[in-house]
Design goal:
By secondary structure, the protein is of the alpha/beta class. Helices cover about 25% and strands about 25% of the residues.
Length: about 425
């Protein structure tokens, strides 16, 4: 079952990812660590503008790339000269992380920080024991100098160091240090231990998506293979740990800002679709929106974020509550059922015809996730044929099904299979 932090994390539904650093000024996606800190010179940095855009999008958190693979640190670290302290920004007295954290708190947004394990600038990278100590020193600065950090974001990015050796990360010790310094933080990586990667950067969670996983299949970040991909995408109904999926995707083709991509920003309809394929599949959406070299989110991106929220609000406008359903167990079905010999049906007489195109189902995941099969049906006449509108496997925190608009008076939801006794679910129609 989820911890209180995991439960609050998923209920946030949407967070913004902020990729900002030297790559913003070199027009690259991956820096090589040889960048001159003098190029980092945002002329109009406004982290409050980022926060306002996040709020307008309905996001409840933001995550900042405090350090990307190039090793450039957005805070004045004591561990390296490759940082904002050697840049012209505020005469070398700037601290992007602090401004980011303060902006989040002023706008009631949770704070997340990403510290890339791969560091192409650090001379000790590849000398595994020494680099691990170096990395933990950076992590300690971030987790002790900026108050409460709600999500700490890791990935499995890895490479060879200057000595030609591949760095070996000590992930158990890294996670232990993180929770020692921020005991209520949710840790993201391929392997959790708090929340997992969904297995792609396309914004699409699995149609089947369990929040439980088998930790032996994905023990550390960076492992690969068909079994790993399946576990990240779908989870495991028999999994021994709760590790819900986070769906990360960028509003632009790349993760950092590139002027040539101004005409390639995702449309409002595309962003709405991402909500359905992430939040609507028992995941959380982490949407990357990269600042420009000025230090601002581009007007196009801001407009699309606000448009996404407006359209989502329009789609999910509150309607009259459904009348109480008739609930019964149908016996004798040849299925794998939580009741052993049948399945649960919930029938509604809507008392008038209504045209619908979206069904929303939710389990109370505070007690776990159990439903593994369902069908949604509708009809107009009392004795007319049932029309199948949607079928699915998992529900979890939220399952959204879209179908062609259909006029119905009677609705039926069948819970056709479950891995444990099912509890009441929430049903809404739009």
């Amino acid at each position: 079952m989820p911890s209180a932090a995991q439960l609050a994390w998923q209920r946030d539904e949407l967070a913004l990812f902020i990729h900002f650093g030297v790559n913003t000024f070199t027009n690259r996606e991956w820096g090589d660590g040889t960048e001159d800190p003098a190029i980092f010179a945002p002329s109009r940095l406004d982290t409050r503008q980022w926060a306002r855009a996040a709020q307008a999008a309905g996001a409840r958190a933001m995550i900042l790339t405090a350090k990307h693979h190039d090793g450039f640190c957005l805070w004045p670290t004591k561990t390296t000269d490759h940082s904002v302290a050697r840049s012209p920004f505020l005469g070398g007295n700037g601290d992007i992380v602090r401004e980011f954290v303060e902006a989040c708190r002023e706008h009631n947004l949770k704070v997340g920080l990403y510290l890339s394990p791969w560091d192409r600038n650090a001379k000790v990278y590849g000398d595994s024991p020494r680099y691990n100590e170096f990395y933990w020193a950076q992590l300690t600065e971030l987790l002790t100098q900026y108050g409460t950090i709600d999500e700490v974001w890791f990935d499995g990015a890895n490479g060879e160091g200057p000595n030609g050796k591949k760095q070996v990360y000590d992930w158990p010790a890294t996670w232990e240090l993180t929770l020692k310094l921020q005991p209520n933080a949710v840790i993201f990586s391929d392997a959790g231990p708090g929340v997992r990667w969904i297995g792609n950067e396309n914004g699409v969670a699995g149609q089947t998506n369990w929040s439980t996983v088998d930790p032996s299949v994905v023990p550390v970040p960076g492992v690969s293979g068909p079994a790993v991909t399946k576990m990240l995408r779908e989870g495991d109904p028999n999994g021994s740990v709760w590790r819900p999926g986070e769906t990360d995707v960028s509003i632009r083709p790349g993760w950092f800002y590139h002027p040539a991509d101004d005409a390639k920003v995702r449309s409002v309809d595309n962003l709405v679709n991402l909500y359905f394929t992430s939040v609507g599949r028992n995941s959380k959406l982490l949407l990357n929106v990269p600042p420009t070299p000025e230090g601002l989110l581009h007007d196009i991106d801001v407009e699309r974020l606000a448009g996404m929220r407006t359209k989502l609000n329009d789609l999910f406008t509150a309607t009259a509550p459904l009348p109480p359903p008739t609930i019964r167990t149908v016996r004798g079905a040849n299925r794998v059922m939580f009741s052993g010999d049948g399945f649960v049906e919930m029938d509604w007489d809507l008392r008038d015809t209504r045209t619908i195109s979206i069904a929303e189902l939710r389990e109370d995941i505070s007690s776990g996730q159990v439903i593994s099969g369902y069908t949604i049906e509708g009809r107009i006449e009392t004795d007319g044929p049932w029309q199948t509108l949607a079928t699915g496997m998992t529900i979890g925190y939220c399952k959204l099904d879209r179908f062609a608009p259909v006029t119905v008076r009677f609705m039926r939801v069948r819970i056709t299979s479950s891995v444990a006794p099912a509890r009441p679910i929430t049903v809404k129609l739009y």
